[in-house]
Each structure stands twice: as structure tokens, then as C-alpha cells.
Design a protein that fits this description.
By secondary structure, the protein is of the alpha/beta class. The protein has one domain (7-328): Rossmann fold (3-Layer(aba) Sandwich), CATH 3.40.50. The protein contains 14 helices and eight strands. A hairpin with a 4-residue loop joins strand 1 (16-22) and strand 2. Helix 10 crosses helix 11 (220-241). The radius of gyration is 20 Å and the shape is globular.
Length: 341
Amino acid sequence: MTAELSIAAILGDAEWLAHRYDAGHDAFHFRRVPREARNGVPFLTDLHLGEETAPLVLRREDCSAAAKPSITPIHFLFHSAFCASTMLVQALDRPGSATGLSEPVLLNDMVGWRRRGADPREHGRAMNDALTMLARGFVAGEAVVVKPSNIFNPLARGALMLRPEARAILLHAPLRSFLLSVARKGMWCRLWCRELLESYLADGYVGLGFDPRDYFRQSDLQVAAVGWLAQQQAFAALIEWAPDRIASLDSETLTGDPVAAVTAAMDHYGLAGERTAIAGHPALGRNSKSGAPFAAGERQQDLARAEAAHGEEIAQVVVWAEAVAQQAGIPLTLPQALPLR
């Protein structure tokens, strides 16, 4: 810790982002990231923020002792990838209303530590403190909306149990749209889908009745569909578990009328702020990954091109995945849809 700042002062300044958790030393790593810098990148990762060579390292127990009882509401945006989740969390970030956190690495560290065999009780205590470190708005009255990476989805229920006042939106792309996105993004995205499935298998997150050897016989898009089905199955179970706190939203509804969807999300989370200003939010007019101006219908045009190139393969995989879903009792359309005005 620096001599100039007390732990309480650091925790009272939201520019100090709780960025990493070092399980070996039971410490949080903080880095200074102003609001403007957060809004200028799609994800709060070193790749987008730049490497931090001198993080501020604080023991977790010291942070826990110095943290004031949180009055900042924290909510979650869980997602299944390729569904405009970055656009939504950025659109919810408005001074005085909410601070949006897009895929903080701190929660990825919680996933990694759990996979390495963390004691469940110790992990629960550290997760509780990690959520406290993230639930720090820039100004009084702001809520915090966290959009974790979807590798965090197996821990979603645990996070909601630790924060019983938190509400969540489960954002997903319809199966066909999801597969079209994977196909158009090419080889690296197909490999990412395999890595995601590998992580979900390690987390015991896949209950579709396949033998482990079956995945070696499946095509890239079948593997992608399995990952989608696993998330859809878990999302449906989450809604059944806490229907009063959780709503679902699909990407086609979000991108078809983003102003209405953002308004509904603010209502669901109970966020303050004028709804009339939503249409002018810069996140709704730019590509959330590149920052380039977003042309009307661009997403739909991209999907149409993917349909032209990969439609036959995708049609076959959709039929196969729908049969798997029916056998496993997985709804292709999630219940508890976020009500739009």
C-alpha cells in the first residue's frame, strides 16, 4: 500500500478497480481505471486496458475489514456469448444511475481458483469479498451492473446466493443466431467454443447425456451447440430457482429495439435515471468491440452473409441440437422474458 492512501480511501474511490485475486497470497490487485477508460474498451482485461506492471496489492482480510457496509446495489448480466451483452452493459452505464463492469478479470480468477481445488468455504468467503470490491459506484446512488465472462456462468447461482438483493438478466442469442455468429467468426471462434466446452465439462456444467468420447466425434458447430445447450439448461434452472429476481432477454429482441430493451433492463434492476435519455447513449450507436459507428441493420446483414455461406451446415446442426434439447428437456426459448414497454 502507498503511504499517501489508506485502504479506506482506496476502497472509497471507484477508479481503483479490483482487478485480480491472488489466491496464493490471499490478496486483491487494484489498478486505477477511470470511468472514461472503462467506457472506451469492450472488456476490463489487460488486453484492452494494457498491462499493469505495478498493481496496488492489498490483503483480502484488510480490504474486508476496511470495507464499509455496502449500500451500493449490485446486479448481474449473465450471457451466453454473441448476444450484444457488451452493448447492453455499456448502455446501462450512466453517471448517477449505474456503473457497468464488462467481464472483470477478478471473477475469472474466482473461476480458476475453484477449478484448482479451492476449499468451498474459503472460496465462498473470497467470492463474497470480491463482490464487495466490485460493488463500488463512482457517485452516491449508483448501482453496479456486472457482466461476467460466460466462463463464470457455473458460479452464477452462488453469486446470487451471496447477494440475495441482486437481480439478474440472462441474455442469450437464439440457437440459430448463435451458430451463425460462430460460423462467420471463423476458425478461432470455433476453437474458442471447444475451449468453453472443455471448461464447462471441468465445472460439471454439462448434463446432456453424452459420453466424453462423443465430443471428439462432433463437428465444430455441434460442439458450439452443446455449449449453448448447457448454458440454456442452466439458465432455465436459474429462472425456476428465483423467478422473482431473474428475467431472460434474447439478442434479437435487444438489437431489434435497443431503447425499449435498455429501458426494461433499467426497470428490472430498479435503476435511477431518466429513461428519455437512453436513445442518445453512445453505446447504442457504435460497435461495442471496435468502437466504430454501428450502421443500422449491420448485425442482421452479418448474420445473413453467414447464412449464405454456412446455412446448410447450420440447418443440420440446428435439427440435431433441437433433438438433444427435447430429449434433455431444455427449452429453446427461455421463460420469464423481460417485459418491454
